[in-house]
Design goal:
Elements lengths: L7 H11 L16 H19 L3 H7 L2 E2 L5 E2 L4 H10 L18 H14 L1 H20 L2 H13 L2 E6 L15 E4 L5 E11 L8 E10 L10 E6 L1 E3 L5 E4 L2 E6 L10 E14 L5 H37 L23 H33 L3 H35 L12 H10 L7 H12 L2 H21 L6 H4 L2 H18 L4 H36 L4 H17 L3 H10 L3 H5 L6
Helix pairs in contact: 1-2, 1-9, 2-5, 5-6, 5-8, 5-9, 6-7, 6-8, 8-9, 8-10, 8-11, 9-10, 9-16, 9-17, 10-11, 10-12, 10-13, 10-16, 12-16, 13-15, 15-16, 15-18, 16-17, 16-18
The structure holds flavin-adenine dinucleotide.
Function: Involved in the assimilation of dimethylsulphoniopropionate (DMSP), an important compound in the fixation of carbon in marine phytoplankton, by mediating the conversion of 3-(methylthio)propanoyl-CoA (MMPA-CoA) to 3-(methylthio)acryloyl-CoA (MTA-CoA).
Family: Belongs to the acyl-CoA dehydrogenase family.
InterPro entries: Acyl-CoA_dh-like_C_dom, Acyl-CoA_Oxase/DH_mid-dom, Acyl-CoA_Oxase/DH_mid-dom_sf, AcylCo_DH-like_C, AcylCo_DH/oxidase_C, AcylCoA_DH/ox_N, AcylCoA_DH/ox_N_sf, AcylCoA_DH/oxidase_NM_dom_sf
């Protein structure tokens, strides 16, 4: 059976040494996250992930969810107890303000926990994950009464949350939505329509389910300008906070799908269900974007989690599996063959995955830290820079971490040869589960379009300029340091490729938008590769400092080797990406639809 161990020590190193989060002790919640607290929180979280959630991953995949004739949904054996343990541990409200029952700790800590949970059991982690997204949306856009009604129960884990956007004819293009909201005399609305693919739409883990639903108020404009957001509880809530009658929302069916079998993906039927407007009329997408942005980062972390879990199992197998001899002579002469980890091609695969995972974890945490700064800093300049970087990196974290996460799950499966293709080893589950992260929360092609069409030109390109300057400054500050040369040297040409791509797009894509569309995915991966290289620069700097202090020398040396591997073997991909972007869209768009 596959296993999972949360990367607690690596995460602590990233938070304290690489990101130096104690520098931000002036921000609300940060001074509560002392070194001791960080260690205690992450160790407990790691224990929950490794000992409670991970053992249910394979059985949950096999058993899946079942829908009863009355529309109720049963989750796999053990899920309720595991969910209760998660809720009882206070994980749901780790970074939610204390006034709503949370602990007010930095969001970056929640992100670290999402990484552990996603690696341990992606399907199970989605139930609380969606709840956290719904909490975030209500915190920003809910009325005081809505916050008081829903948040404490959601933070406690007694109620869970969902996000209802998709309809059969309307996925990426939300402007097509048909779900209708009719105002009632008491200020509520009656919602009617069908939503599909709703994760955690119905289940047996919580007492109530709080659906956040987009719909069009009768008479509202067509397209995205007429979308409003509503909160629609499964059970109506009485004045005193107790649960009242069942609302008119039911699960019509659950999907049979490629992966995340243990997460219920529901068709939700709204038949005059009672809902209440969240935020302003016709401004629903703005409100939903809070949840979507939060969810996009969380989904990126899902890609990393699957990559990490698949990697850990591939390494364990590569140490055990005996096949062939090392090219340089037997390493295990007393046995019939050497373990496959001696083979350079096997090592190439394992190194590639791990070099990605460590930098991707740094990127996810660095981006979460920008979110903390953007929301908690008193300094307007600092807030703006952090918000710019957060916006720029959101599609990169979502798109690149999930594209690579899936590719890495496939590579890790490859380490098992034919056994990887057999279900009992569990490697196929990582591949199947990782696949969804590339699709939902905006398919990755849409993330790339968001980057090139919105995030790049926003405010005259301010966010990209800030990022380019930050990396250039890092190169300048460390370029003369002999020990940093293997990390800083290769970063400069990669940064030049990124600058050249941005320049080419500025000169060519405004007049010909197809150039932007055709180059979008390459730009997303080009920026992703550069920022991962930058993360390796930061990791190397911290590892060198730790080594000089005599801390954890062997582990730090391994990081420096992994960093050099990334610089030598992954970073050069930037030139390929640049070449593709500069090829423009002529050939991409040349064939007629019939000629395909
Ligand atoms: C297991 C699962 C769970 C899900 N959970 C939820 C949930 O909880 N809540 C919810 O609301 N939804 C959920 N979804 C829906 C998911 O977010 C959508 O499937 C996704 O946004 C894509 O929409 P679509 O399937 O209609 O594809 P389409 O929008 O039809 O897109 C098809 C393809 O065309 C591309 N494309 C479309 N438009 C453009 C464009 N303008 N430019 C370039 N490329 C384009 C897309 O990238 C995609 O590759 C879930 C889906 C699944 C499968």
């Amino acid at each position: 059976m596959p296993s999972y161990r949360a990367p607690v020590e690596d995460t602590l190193f990233l938070l304290e040494d690489v990101l130096a989060i104690h520098r931000y002790d002036n921000l609300p919640g940060f001074s509560d996250a002392s070194s001791d607290v960080l260690r205690a929180v992450l160790s407990e979280g790691g224990k929950l992930a490794g000992e409670v959630l991970a053992p249910l991953n394979l059985s949950g995949d096999r058993e899946g969810c079942t829908r009863n004739a009355d529309g109720s949904v049963v989750t796999p054996k053990g899920f309720k107890q595991a969910y209760d343990a998660y809720a009882a541990g206070g994980w749901m409200g780790l970074s939610v303000p204390e006034e709503f029952g949370g602990q007010g700790l930095p969001h970056v800590l929640s992100t670290a926990m999402q990484d552990f949970v996603s690696g341990a059991n992606l399907a199970l982690g989605m139930y609380p994950g969606l709840t956290q997204g719904a909490i975030a949306a209500l915190l920003v856009h809910g009325s005081q009464a809505q916050k008081e009604t829903y948040l404490p129960k959601m933070v406690e884990g007694a109620w869970t949350g969902t996000m209802n956007l998709t309809e059969p004819h309307c996925g990426t293009d939300l402007g097509l939505l048909k779900t209708k909201a009719v105002p009632n005399p008491d200020g509520s609305y009656s919602l009617t329509g069908t939503k599909i693919f709703i994760s955690a739409g119905e289940h047996d883990l919580s007492e109530n389910i709080v659906h956040l639903v987009i719909a069009r108020i009768e008479g509202a404009p067509a397209g995205t300008k007429g979308i409003s957001l509503f909160v629609v509880p499964k059970f109506l809530v009485n004045e005193d906070g107790s649960l009242g009658e069942r609302n008119g929302v039911t699960c019509g069916s659950i999907e049979h799908k490629m992966g995340i079998h243990a997460n219920s993906t529901c068709v939700m039927n709204y038949d005059g269900a009672k809902g209440w407007l969240v935020g302003q009329e016709n401004r629903g997408l703005n409100a939903m974007f809070v949840m979507m942005n939060e969810a996009r980062l969380a989904v990126g972390v899902q890609g990393l989690g699957q990559s990490e879990a698949a990697y850990q199992n591939a390494v364990a197998y590569a140490r055990e599996r005996l096949q062939g001899r090392a090219l340089t002579g037997a390493k295990n002469p007393e046995r019939a063959a050497d373990p496959i980890i001696v083979h350079p091609d096997v090592r190439r695969t394992l190194m590639q995955i791990r070099a990605f995972n460590e930098a991707a974890r740094a990127l996810a945490l660095w981006t979460a830290l920008q979110s903390d700064i953007a929301h908690r800093s008193q300094d307007a300049t600092e807030r703006q820079l952090a918000d710019d970087l957060l916006g720029l990196m959101t599609p990169v974290v979502k798109g690149v971490l999930t594209d690579r996460g899936f590719a890495n799950a496939v590579e890790a499966q490859q380490m098992f040869g034919g056994h990887g293709y057999i279900e009992e080893w569990g490697m196929s589950q990582f591949v199947r589960d990782a696949r969804i992260a590339m699709i939902y929360e905006g398919a990755n092609g849409i993330q790339a379009m968001d980057l090139i069409g919105r995030k790049l030109p926003k405010d005259g390109g301010r966010a990209m300029m800030a990022f380019l300057t930050e990396v250039q400054t890092f190169i300048k500050d460390h370029g003369e340091d002999e020990a940093m040369k293997p990390f800083v040297g290769p970063l400069q040409p990669a940064l030049n490729d990124l600058q050249a791509a941005v320049m080419w797009l500025m000169q060519n894509a405004f007049t010909k938008p197809d150039h932007a569309g055709a180059g979008a995915t390459d730009l997303m991966h080009l920026l992703g590769t550069v920022v991962l290289g930058y993360m390796w620069g930061k990791i190397a700097k911290a590892a060198l400092a730790a080594k000089a202090e005599g801390r954890d020398a062997e582990r730090m040396e391994a990081k420096l080797v992994l960093g050099r591997f990334f610089m030598e073997r992954t970073l050069p991909e930037t030139s390929l990406r640049l070449a593709r972007i500069k090829a423009g869209s002529e050939t991409t768009m040349a064939l007629s639809a019939e000629a395909f």
